[in-house]
Prior knowledge:
- With 340 residues, the protein is of the alpha/beta class.
- It folds into two domains: 30-183; 208-240 and 257-340, no CATH class.
- The protein has helices at 100-106, 130-142, 211-214, 216-226, 263-269, 311-317, 327-330, and strands at 10-12, 34-36, 59-60, 62-64, 86-92, 113-120, 151-155, 174-178, 197-201, 208-209, 232-236, 242-246, 253-254, 271-275, 281-285, 304-308, 335-339.
- The strands form four sheets. It has a ten-stranded parallel β-sheet, covered by helices on one side. Strands 1-2-3 form a three-stranded parallel β-sheet, with no helix packed on it.
- Helix 2 (130-142) links the parallel strand 6 and strand 7.
- The chain is elongated, with a radius of gyration of 23 Å.
- The termini are far apart.
- 37% of the residues are buried.
- The model is unreliable at 222-230 and 259-263 (pLDDT under 50).
Amino acid sequence: xxxxxxxxxxxxxxxxxxxxxxxxxxxxxxxxxxxxxxxxxxxxxxxxxxxxxxxxxxxxxxxxxxxxxxxxxxxxxxxxxxxxxxxxxxxxxxxxxxxxxxxxxxxxxxxxxxxxxxxxxxxxxxxxxxxxxxxxxxxxxxxxxxxxxxxxxxxxxxxxxxxxxxxxxxxxxxxxxxxxxxxxxxxxxxxxxxxxxxxxxxxxxxxxxxxxxxxxxxxxxxxxxxxxxxxxxxxxxxxxxxxxxxxxxxxxxxxxxxxxxxxxxxxxxxxxxxxxxxxxxxxxxxxxxxxxxxxxxxxxxxxxxxxxxxxxxxxxxxxxxxxxxxxxxxxxxxxxxxxx
Length: 340
């Protein structure tokens, strides 16, 4: 009955927590503009084939892709026709995409009104095999969003490298990388000028966070290529206010600029480096192997520091006795809490 309402423009099933899947005839609602499914926590089945016919859709908070052999389920390529989408969107089931052309066909880059994007590759199952990881890399690279995206969340991605387009999101304000288990090195996120909030969770292959994260090496190479010799300033993570690392089980080192460009080297090259000049909140949860904090931390206006379930770092800080070798880096922070 519902799918025969061909003039229906808004369908609101928000908070209907027991709904598991949408009806098979959804493609008949050709005038539908708003499909409101916020807080439908039970909605986990792939969407029915034909969603791509709903060319008038403005609001679609979730889009779940089916497997290649399930003929009644929608594929990523159907997303091509939904050019009027705006606001927030989550695409789930990306682990089911085996044909990269499907990801190309989705033409995410043409969805110019989307501001918040969530990309889900399966669940948290630990490290994925190499074949699945390689496919995830191809799919994620093909899912390049419009450069005016403001918020991005990537979950369960199995690739070892970050997508080429990530650092081209020039006005991105919020980024969360969650359960990207095979990611070996963090992207040069320091280049994202408007980034305000950054969360890295469960990247189990990351052992070191260094200058590649700040983007210093890439900037130096660029200066060398351009033959720049004049004095310049380099501000990395200029607007970052909130930074969180959680469940980084193998993470051991967090380096600042000392490993690649020491203060005297910076003076010789005429480069003044400022890192995270607006950072206010730093959270480190369940990082059991992390040994130290970066050398630039004392220059940040950090107001709140939380260290939980990170025994080595907690021992080094020893905030109660103020004798840990990391204490000078955090002595300026007014609010510090830790639990081993």
